[in-house]
């Protein structure tokens, strides 16, 4: 059945001028990092629902994350958030990850959960608080060095709630000062990924509110600083793929935090409400990956794909599997775009022809391709089904309720 489905698929793609071997090799090399906090309990400001079997510490989070990698083959790294994942011995955590077949990915400093940060962290008008916040950034550089991570992922909750509450321009300078100190402490192979978000928890102004501010800061800091696009961090209607194309062209797109949003920073399963947006993001990336400019190509090939989701009502591991599979599916579809066809239609100024060349790839069912790919790699054809049948979900229930939460 699958063999026949794949044979038909292969024939179709050949007729469309698609090189399936290239498509498969790209699918084999993509890596999607999962977040340690996506395995813990989470909720909204109204309620955190405690689930049975949730990891009790960072070591158990890695055990769950390893399941996702084992079944999908594309999630070999796990992002950590400090101090959510604070441990006495980071080298031990690194060894634990390696023993499970995964590694520690981006290190995320957390500057939003201490009372000292009520009026901001690196942008606080109190120099002692700024010092404390900057020291935490430096501590995270050291942790990244210890665990062998090359990415530091920064997001600041800093902002104000009322006009006049603080000096916006002074805060801008303090932000740059702190990040410069951190940048100088980084090893040459490390990257600083600067994330922006237009609101929440601050509602009047946020110090790094949009991609332009993150881009400007990254430019001032230097080549090791790039912008991180969290797909949930934009106002309604924003053309995220345009931002992606622009940053790629400037060689400043460093990574993604994937999730899905309907109203705000909903942190729902990526590709659940807006799969076409995810597809169009990959379409822009693949277009840039074939650019004539080597810098743009290199940028497109070095994007850190990360999931940033907090699963409030879903079982955690299946929710992460669904997320990873959604990313893989949309990436596979984008790989089926016939770029020559798009370019020819663009050259003719054939609006509908160009639109069709892009959309038609999205409409292709890539299931036979993904199943064939997994079979080639010795992975389960249906990772979700394999997980549900594996018994792992039941085996962790003795952990009980009341595990780690953010
Ligand atoms: C902020 C954010 C940021 C944090 C994560 C937990 O909304 O996207 O990336 O580190 O959520
Ligand atoms: Mn994020
Ligand atoms: Mn977010």
Task: Write up what this structure looks like.
With 406 residues, this protein is α/β, with parallel strands linked by helices. It has one domain: Divalent-metal-dependent TIM barrel enzymes (TIM Barrel, Alpha-Beta Barrel). The protein is 48% helix and 12% strand. The chain is built from 16 helices and 12 strands. It has helices at 2-15, 20-29, 58-72, 90-99, 127-147, 168-185, 211-221, 240-249, 275-289, 294-301, 316-335, 339-347, 351-362, 367-376, 383-390, 392-395; strands at 32-35, 42-43, 48-49, 77-82, 103-109, 151-154, 159-160, 191-195, 205-206, 225-230, 253-258, 304-307. Strands 5-4-1-12-11-10-8-6 form an 8-stranded parallel sheet, with helices on one face. The protein is globular and about 65 Å long. The protein starts with a helix and ends in an 11-residue tail after the last helix.
Strand content is: 5-15%
What is the makeup of the main sheet?
8 strands, parallel
Provide the list of bound ligands, each named once. 6-deoxy-beta-L-fructofuranose, manganese (II) ion
Q: State the low-pLDDT regions, or none.
A: none
CATH superfamily: Divalent-metal-dependent TIM barrel enzymes
GO molecular function: L-rhamnose isomerase activity; metal ion binding
Pfam family, one: AP_endonuc_2
Domain Xylose isomerase-like TIM barrel: 88-266
InterPro entries: L-rhamnose_isomerase (IPR050337), Rhamnose_iso-rel (IPR013457), Xyl_isomerase-like_sf (IPR036237), Xyl_isomerase-like_TIM-brl (IPR013022)
